[in-house]
Amino acid sequence: MAVMNVNPTRMQLTKLKKQLATATRGHKMLKDKRDELMRRFLDLVRENKELREKIERELAECNNHFVNASAVMSKEALDASLMSPKQRIDLELSSKNVMSVDIPQFSSSTRTSNESDIFPYGFAFTSFELDDAVMSLNELLPDLIRLAEIEKSCELMSAEIEKTRRRVNSLEHVMIPRYQETIKYISMKLEENDRSSRTRLMKVKDMLLDKAHHYSEHYN
Questions:
Q1: What is the rounded CA–CA span in Å between residue 125 and residue 72?
Q2: Angle between helices 128-170 and 10-72 (to 10 degrees)
């Protein structure tokens, strides 16, 4: 691991130790965030799988009702029955923050509260199979909205997990080892300088003592 290009001073050593402590805390927080995001992401994936399987079964049933209705009604009559819907669904979008990820929240409301408004036709000239198909689709709508919400949430959380994973790896395999190596390098340099200083001081002391000794002999 390459050592940072810094001056090997005690001030720089203190600064790097503080930065290492900050990076270590950040690494732990990001790992905790990544793990929690993964847990919630997997919960959503499981819910998505179960909900999608349920919707596919119910859509197949709705399709069967439409097929049966088309078997007893002409295409023109079937198209005319569904041409002018009386009910309208409004969707409102909000968001919820989950581990710094804004995931969507959908809420739906109908234009009227009358349940019979889901049928855009009179019952005199239509098949009960068409009624079943329309009711099935109406009951399926909340699940479809929830599925859209989950799938978008999974997409956003997956992107955040990948971004967090890269930051964790950068700290774990690049920044923290670089700080550690640089701190080790500066510590060794400072110790080497201390040893050199002590050696010089000892030599100066020996020279002074030797000089003092000779002076004392000359004086005697």
A1: 11
A2: 170
In this structure, what CATH number is given to the domain that contains residue 36?
Answer: 1.10.287.3240
Phi, psi of 118, deg, nearest 5: -70, -20
Total Cβ atoms within 10 A of residue 62: 19
Instruction: Give residue 101's identity as a one-letter amino acid code.
Output: V
Q: How far apart are CA 13 and CA 186, in angstroms?
A: 7
Answer yes or no: is 215 within a domain: no
Number of domains in the chain: 1
- What is the pLDDT averaged over residues 32-46? 95
pLDDT digits (tens, 9 = 90+) for 76-102: 888 888 888 888 888 899 999 988 899
Whether 61 and 133 have beta carbons less than 8 Å apart is answered as no
Q: Is residue 117 part of a domain?
A: yes
Residue 216 lies in a domain: no
| Rounded CA separation 60/188 (Å) | 73
109-134 per-position pLDDT tens digit: 888 888 888 888 887 778 888 888 88
For residue 219, what pLDDT is reported?
45
135 is a domain residue: yes
